[in-house]
Design a protein that fits this description.
Helix 1 packs parallel to helix 4 (93-106), helix 1 runs antiparallel to helix 6 (141-176) and helix 9 packs across helix 10. By secondary structure, the chain is of the alpha/beta class. The protein is built from twelve helices and twelve strands. It has helices spanning 41-55, 63-71, 79-87, 93-106, 117-128, 141-176, 186-195, 219-226, 251-262, 276-285, 298-307, 318-321; strands at 2-4, 14-15, 22-24, 26-29, 199-207, 209-210, 216-217, 239-243, 269-273, 288-292, 311-313, 325-327. It is globular, with a radius of gyration of 20 Å.
């Protein structure tokens, strides 16, 4: 078990919000940008959401055709979508696609029967602020089903473009030199937590599928293995938990579900991430939050300070982190 307190925190780790000393039994970790550097997702998210907000949703024959249409606009700049990608880091990809579609409706580019303009505008604002669920707002169910179907198709096109625009190339390089594609100290930090008796879970917005034997499959599972993280009961990473193609699963819901299934006290959880969703959820849950953010990520750091994260670090420096994270 791990004991964490406010004493001995070095200057390399920024303390944003004070926290009560506590025992940590579990840790929920984001993957992209938090531990893995394989997915350069911001340019791809900018392209897909920017294209959609500006041009709408073309009537493509299938998802590969849609990806090809969007991909032809790679040379364009989409400033609003780029800002949105930074602001929305950590949100469900379906939420991000929903924002783009709703912006297209606002822009008069996309006409969806059943649109309630005032509600649509309110949801656009809420998504920008980091919210993901709006069931209390009145919209026809037929409209929401259509929006979800379109969001799913865009999500799948995004994944195709993500693989083509860098992920596959980076994954091949990571298989040769995994350390170069991990955040410095990542593997050592996970192993330190595991050695202290903490159960680590990877919780991601990427889709995770399992085969008949319960083995995680898919592109994110491939990346995690390529980087040298062992997954499974009793391993450094206990389980890989992810999203779905056609059903919005915000990280807060995934983490609360883990707490319920495993009888985990939220205040005994360490949440590590670089996105607003996992950090905001951790603060609401009463967990201890550690934001892993590069020094140059000034906007992201400002967002996380506003959210009330407890700690910000740019890397997993064992000597620094172990000053106040001690095995008991």
């Amino acid at each position: 078990m791990l004991y964490v307190d406010n004493r001995g925190i070095p200057p390399a780790v920024e303390t944003v919000a004070p926290f009560a000393p506590r025992r940590i039994t579990h840790a929920f970790h984001d993957i992209d940008g938090t531990h893995s550097l394989i997915r350069d997702w911001v340019p791809v998210m900018t392209l897909v959401t920017g294209f959609t907000a500006q041009y709408g949703a073309p009537n493509a024959a299938d998802v590969p055709a849609l990806a090809a249409i969007i991909g032809r606009h790679r040379s364009e700049e989409f400033p609003e979508a780029h800002r949105f990608a930074i602001e929305s880091a950590g949100l469900s990809a379906l939420t991000q696609m929903e924002w783009a579609l709703r912006r297209a409706v606002e822009n008069g580019i996309l006409a969806l029967p059943g649109t309630v303009p005032a509600v649509n505008a309110e949801i656009v604002r809420r998504i920008w602020r980091g919210e993901e669920e709006f069931t209390e707002l009145p919209e026809p169910e037929t409209f929401r089903r259509r929006l979800n179907a379109m969001s799913t198709m865009l999500f799948q096109a995004y994944e195709i473009l993500l693989l083509r625009m860098g992920r596959d190339r980076n994954l091949a390089a990571a298989k040769t030199d995994p350390a170069a594609w991990r955040v410095p100290g990542s593997l050592e930090f996970l192993r330190f937590l595991h050695a202290c008796g903490v159960k680590n879970y990877f919780v991601t917005g990427a889709v995770i599928e399992y085969d008949g034997d319960g083995i995680p499959r898919g592109t994110m599972a491939d990346e995690v293995r390529a980087l040298g993280y062992d997954i499974g009961p009793g391993e450094a990473v206990e389980k890989l938990v992810g999203s779905a193609w056609n059903r919005k699963l915000p990280k807060e819901r995934l983490m609360l579900q883990l707490c319920a299934e495993e009888a985990i006290a939220p205040e005994a959880v360490l949440i590590v991430g670089d996105g607003r969703s996992e950090i905001a959820a951790g603060v609401r849950m009463g967990a201890l939050t550690l934001s892993r953010l590069d020094p140059a990520a000034e906007r992201a750091r400002a967002i996380h300070r506003t959210l009330g994260t407890h700690l910000i670090a740019d890397r997993y420096d064992p000597a620094a982190l172990q000053c106040f994270m001690r095995a008991i």
